[in-house]
Amino acid sequence: MPVESLPLSTWAGSRRMRRVAWTAGSLVALALIGGLVSWRIHKENAPEEYTPGEASQDITSQVSARNTAPAVQSQAVRNVVSARVVDRLRDPGRPLPQGAPEPRFTDVTQTAGLAGFRQFQGVRTSQLPEDMGSGVAWGDFDNDGLEDLFVVSGGGPLGVPASELAPSVLYRNLGDGRFEKVKDFPELRIHGMAAAWGDYNNDGWLDLVVTGYDTIILFRNDHGHLVRDKSFPSPKGFWAGASWGDYNRDGYLDLYVCGYVKYKPGEQNATASSTQFGLEVPFTLNPASYEPERNLLFRNNGNGTFIEVAQELGVANPGRT
Asked: Which residues contact 135 (CB under 8 A, 6 or more apart)?
């Protein structure tokens, strides 16, 4: 049948079908182009997979071409170090500023006066509190503008007299890269874990809390002299990290203490072994051998006293370690 003889409705329907087909085809083409562009953008911005040991231009700590450039020492550095030949760091687009010191660390424990500290004293007896590493806390306790250092000692074997444990030590910053022991700090011989500074009584002087096995001790700072607050509650338990914060926004710092596990010394199966991360370890050194300990929240009453409210507020979290 000639085109001219087609009914008007048939001709209009044919044009409509062509228009729909053209539109659908355009949408498909646009979707394909959009997908291709997105894939290309993602590929260009995705981080390059790195295999340990291979060379990479993005690793700024990698150095090469030994003995090619001398170190440039900053005028602002007070501690003079011996001159040595070093490498230039690779930092594409962001070279080190002129006069920047060599970014390396040097062990200054001995010269700083900290080498005499002992973390553990005695013979270990394969018990979990003896196997834990203790912490440190920085804080300007004497308000001289220099950060001082409190170092927590793990003490020694369980069951020995406190006098045989290694003491925790408070070091005063002398301002010249050296530290000295604070002589009037109360002797502290515990199976320690952690410490945290915080001004809980708002007198402008940092106070100190120290945690450990069966131990939570609070020291009040009396204008640069730390005095133990014997009224502070110290429940039995294996206490780890501690943190100060004003949870109820009353203007006074409260204290949150994390419990570790409910360790039971002298168990009958102390000589048994268990598996930890696929390795066989003594039963008494595996934290998975014990139930988790609860956490504690000490609310600051604003008058120098505290009350423990973790269970009451639902933050004791006894199912986690």
From this structure: 152, 193, 194, 195, 241
Residue 59: both structure tokens together: 């690793």
Task: Name the β-bridge partners of 279.
Answer: 276
Question: What phi, psi does 33 have (nearest 5°)?
Answer: -65, -45
Question: Which of 156, 211, 219 has the alpha carbon at shortest distance from 187?
Answer: 219
Is residue 118 classed as helix, strand or coil in its secondary structure?
coil
Give the length of the chain. 321
Rounded distance between C-alpha atoms, residue 127 and residue 264, angstroms: 9
pLDDT in tens, 117-157: 999 999 988 889 998 889 999 999 999 999 999 999 999 99
Q: Using CA atoms in the order 222, 225, 230, 236, what is the torsion angle rounded to 10 degrees?
A: 120
Strand partners, 280: 275
In the DSSP assignment, the letter for residue 63 is B
CA 265/CA 277 separation, integer angstroms: 23
Q: Report the share of the chain in percent with pLDDT over 70.
A: 73
User: Is the overall model pTM greater than 0.70, yes or no?
Assistant: no
Tokens in use for 141? 């306790």
Eight-state DSSP code of residue 212: E
Contacts of 280 (CB under 8 A, 6+ apart): 273, 274
- Please tell me the distance from the alpha carbon of residue 151 to that of residue 177, in angstroms, as a whole number: 17
> What pLDDT does residue 316 have?
95
Tokens representing 76? 């602002």
How far apart, in whole angstroms, are the C-alpha atoms of residue 58 and residue 319? 42
Helix (H) or strand (E) holding 129: helix 128-131
Cα(281)–Cα(34) distance, integer angstroms: 56
* pLDDT tens column, 19-64: 777 777 777 777 788 777 777 766 665 544 444 444 544 433 433 3
